[in-house]
Write a structure and sequence with these properties.
alpha/beta, TIM Barrel, 8-stranded parallel beta barrel, 2 domains, 15 helices
C-alpha cells in the first residue's frame, strides 16, 4: 500500500481509502464488518462514512470494535460528515456518529455536501463552523474538513474562506477538468485532498470498453487504470473507493500495490483519448458554465452522461441530479432554458447541448407526473 501525508496534519493515510456507502447488503452486518476488517488488514487505514448512508455508521462500529484492539500498533482514521445547517444540528449529528461507531472522537469531520457558496455561507452564518471549532477544542473532532460537489473555481473561493484541514470532492477520469482548479487550491494550501467517486460512481467498471483508454499497461484492468491515473496525481491524498465486496477490495489494493509512475506522455495520451473515446459523453471541461439563465449546464451534462451510459434509463439521471448534485426534479432549472445556444458555442466538443436539455426536461416532466400519481 502507498501512504501519503494528509495535508499539514502529519498523519499518514493510505492512498486507497474505503468508502462506506456501497455495502452489498446492509442487512448482513457480519459480511459488511468483515469487509471493512479485511480492508484494514490489507493496509487501508482511511475509512469514510456518513450519518446519511443508511446503516453504514453502525456497520463501521461493528468492525471498529475489533480494530480498536490493534489501533495503537496499527493506526486507522475515521472520516464522517454532518449535513447540519445549525450549530445544534451539527452537535446532534456528531453525538449520533460517535455512539454508532463506538468512538470517542472523529479524525476527519466534514461539513457535508456543500452545493453552492450561498449554502455554505448560510451554514457559517448559523454557527456551524464555530460549533465545529468548539467540538475540536473538546477533543471530539480532530480535523475540520469540507465536502463539496461544486465546480473548481467555486471550490477555490470556498477554501479561501476558512483554513480547512482537508477537502473531499468528486474526482475521476470523467470529470477531473471540471474540478482541477479546486484540487490545485487545496494542494497549494497544503490541505489533504480526498477524491470520492474515483470510479465515476460505478460507471467506469460497468462500461470497461468505453473507458479502455485509461489503461497504460497490458496487464491492468480498467479499474486499476482509472485508480492509477489518480494515484499518479501528487495533489491527491486518498482515492476513496466505495467497496461492495472482497473482489473489489482486491482490485483496489492491486491498483496501489502495482502502481508505477505514469509518464507525462502517457497522461497526455489519456487526456487526448478521453476526448476522442467519449464521443457523445461530456468531459466536464466546464466551458459551458455561462448560462444567462443560471442553469448549471455542466451538472446537467454530467447527469446526461449517466443517462447515456445506463442505456437511457431516466432514473439514473434523476438520481444523479438528486443525490450527487442536490437538484430536485421540481427545480426551476429544468424549465428555464431559452435555447439561446450560448452553451453550445462555448462547448469544446461541439455537443448538442440544447437538444440534451430538451431531453432532460422531457424526462423530468414524466418523472414529475409519476410522482404526482403515486
Amino acid at each position: 500500500m502507498i501512504y501519503n501525508e494528509y495535508g499539514k496534519t502529519g498523519i499518514k493515510v493510505s492512498a486507497i481509502g474505503m468508502g462506506g456507502m456501497r455495502f452489498e447488503n446492509q442487512e448482513d452486518p457480519e459480511a459488511c464488518a468483515s469487509l471493512m476488517k479485511a480492508a484494514y488488514d490489507s493496509g487501508i487505514n482511511y475509512f469514510d462514512t456518513a450519518i446519511g448512508y443508511g446503516k453504514s455508521e453502525e456497520l463501521f462500529g461493528i468492525a471498529i470494535k475489533e480494530m480498536l484492539k490493534t489501533r495503537s500498533k496499527k493506526p486507522f482514521y475515521i472520516a464522517t460528515k454532518t449535513g447540519g445547517g445549525t450549530a445544534e444540528a451539527v452537535r446532534k449529528d456528531l453525538e449520533v456518529s460517535l455512539k454508532r461507531m463506538n468512538l470517542d472522537y472523529i479524525d476527519f469531520y466534514h461539513v457535508w455536501c456543500i452545493m453552492s457558496l450561498d449554502k455554505y455561507r448560510e451554514r457559517v452564518k448559523n454557527g456551524v463552523i464555530r460549533e465545529l471549532e468548539k467540538m475540536k477544542a473538546e477533543g471530539l473532532v480532530k480535523h475540520i474538513c469540507v465536502s463539496t460537489h461544486m465546480a473548481g473555481a467555486d471550490i477555490k473561493t470556498l477554501l479561501s474562506d476558512y483554513p480547512f484541514d482537508g477537502l473531499l470532492l468528486g474526482y475521476s477520469i470523467m470529470n477531473f477538468a471540471y474540478r482541477t482548479e479546486g484540487v490545485q487550491a487545496a494542494a497549494d494550501a497544503k490541505m489533504g485532498v480526498v477524491a470520492m467517486n474515483p470510479l465515476g460512481g460505478g460507471l467506469i467498471p460497468q462500461n470497461p470498453e468505453q473507458f479502455n483508454f485509461v489503461k497504460t499497461r497490458d496487464d491492468e484492468t480498467v479499474v486499476e487504470g482509472a485508480l492509477r491515473f489518480l494515484l499518479n496525481d501528487k495533489r491527491l491524498t486518498v482515492s476513496l473507493v466505495g467497496l461492495s465486496n472482497k473482489k473489489q477490495l482486491e482490485e483496489a489494493i492491486s491498483a496501489a500495490d502495482g502502481f508505477r509512475p505514469i509518464s507525462k506522455k502517457d497522461i497526455s495520451s489519456i487526456r487526448e483519448k478521453l476526448k476522442k473515446s467519449f464521443n457523445e459523453l461530456c468531459t466536464n471541461c466546464g466551458y459551458c458554465d455561462s448560462c444567462p439563465e443560471k442553469i448549471p449546464v455542466p451538472r446537467m451534462m454530467d447527469a446526461y452522461n449517466h443517462y447515456l451510459l445506463n442505456k437511457k434509463n431516466p432514473d439514473s439521471m434523476i438520481n444523479r441530479f438528486k443525490w450527487h448534485w442536490g437538484i430536485d426534479i421540481e427545480n426551476e432549472y429544468f424549465t428555464k432554458c431559452t435555447q439561446c445556444g450560448l452553451c453550445e458555442k462555448k462547448c469544446t466538443q461541439k455537443l448538442p447541448i440544447r437538444e440534451r436539455l430538451k431531453t432532460i426536461r422531457k424526462e423530468v416532466e414524466i418523472a414529475r407526473e409519476k410522482k404526482k400519481a403515486s
